[in-house]
Design brief:
The protein is of the alpha/beta class and 331 residues long. It has a single domain, classed as Ribokinase (UDP-N-acetylmuramoyl-L-alanine:D-glutamate ligase, 3-Layer(aba) Sandwich). The chain is 35% helix and 25% strand.
Length: 331
């Protein structure tokens, strides 16, 4: 079963309505740093490539990339997460502000580093190595309480709450309990999940596992639409969420809600990099729901956004005009 396509005029109406809605993002913020160079030889010291440095740049990652995607589509975004007291936190904060995302609700924990992934890549975008700076133990004590207070304060004005869980310590049981209070106040709760925390997401409006996560959660292989349908039903039962959107890469998506279910075909694109595509999906879903889309309409818009962002290198964003281009209206 395939979901009916979104009529272009309705799609364009929703895309134009995305701007100005308030979304609260909670989760693991990261900084992605790329060191770019040219490989011409193998090291005489070890069988590894020698990378001749050419340039370096940073991108927002994790929950920070989700917030950046929302801001790029016109949302008013509040980001709640944890950073260290270090240079990476300064760079991340500066880049958030440049992207139109306030860093005022980030909590500083001097005992841990800001999560930073350093990728060494060639000038042809081939990854050679990655170095991770992180402390993934769950936050507790004053830091956890401060996160809860900021969620309660910032969430009072949000139409949608989006939890971006990367297992780096910010999404604790108590943090999720506080996030659920916003759903009780009629804000939709969307979760981009990780399997070890599935029980924490109970009661969410929508959870967005990729097909590997859905397989692990349900102990089912997903090789067809029928498999995806069965896995989605089992996932909803397992997590006690209202709806699930399984992202399946080149096979598109499968949406299961109380009212409908079906496949969404992938948007045919040349894939450059899938890094951060899940962030784009979650962000587009959240903002579309805030703009009045149904779950099916929001999923179709998110699928379109994913098709655009995988054509870009590294964690990237999608603009409203790019989305509009995917739904032309004939004269």
């Amino acid at each position: 079963m395939t979901l009916p396509p979104l009529e272009p005029r309705r799609a364009r109406e929703l895309i134009r309505a995305l701007r100005g809605h308030r979304v609260l993002v909670i989760g693991d913020v990261m900084l992605d740093r790329f060191i770019v160079g040219r490989v011409t030889r193998i090291s005489p010291e070890a069988p590894v490539p020698v990378v001749q440095f050419r340039s370096e740049f940073t991108r927002l990652g994790g929950a920070a990339n989700v917030a950046h995607n929302l801001a790029a589509l016109g949302a008013e975004v509040t980001l709640v997460g944890v950073v260290g007291s270090d240079a990476a936190a300064e760079r991340l904060t500066r880049q958030l502000l440049e992207s139109g995302v306030s860093a005022a609700e980030l909590v500083t924990d001097p005992s841990r580093p800001t999560t930073e992934k350093v990728r060494i890549v060639t000038d042809h975008n081939q990854q050679v190595a990655r170095v991770d700076y992180e402390q993934d133990a769950e936050v507790s004590g004053d830091v956890e309480r401060e996160l809860q207070q900021r969620i309660a304060r910032a969430g009072s004005l949000a139409a949608v709450v989006l939890v971006s869980d990367y297992l780096k310590g910010a999404v604790t049981d108590r943090v999720m309990e506080t996030a659920r209070t916003r759903k009780d106040a009629r804000a939709a709760l969307i979760v981009d999940p990780k399997i070890p925390h599935l029980d924490r997401y109970a009661g969410a409006t929508l959870i967005t596992p990729n097909h590997h996560e859905a397989e692990a959660a349900t102990l089912r292989q997903i090789r067809s639409h029928d498999d995806a349908r069965d896995a989605a039903a089992a996932f909803r039962t397992r997590t006690r969420c209202e709806a699930v959107l399984i992202t399946r890469g080149e096979h598109g998506m499968w949406l299961s809600t109380p009212d409908s279910e079906g496949a969404i075909a992938a948007v045919a694109r040349e894939v450059s990099d899938v890094t951060g595509a899940g962030d784009t999906v979650a962000a587009t879903l959240a903002l579309a729901l805030a703009a009045g889309a149904s779950l099916a309409e929001a999923a179709i818009l998110a699928n379109q956004a994913a098709g655009i962002v995988v054509g870009k290198f590294g964690p990237a964003t999608v603009l409203g005009d790019e989305l509009l281009a995917g739904f032309p209206v004939s004269a």
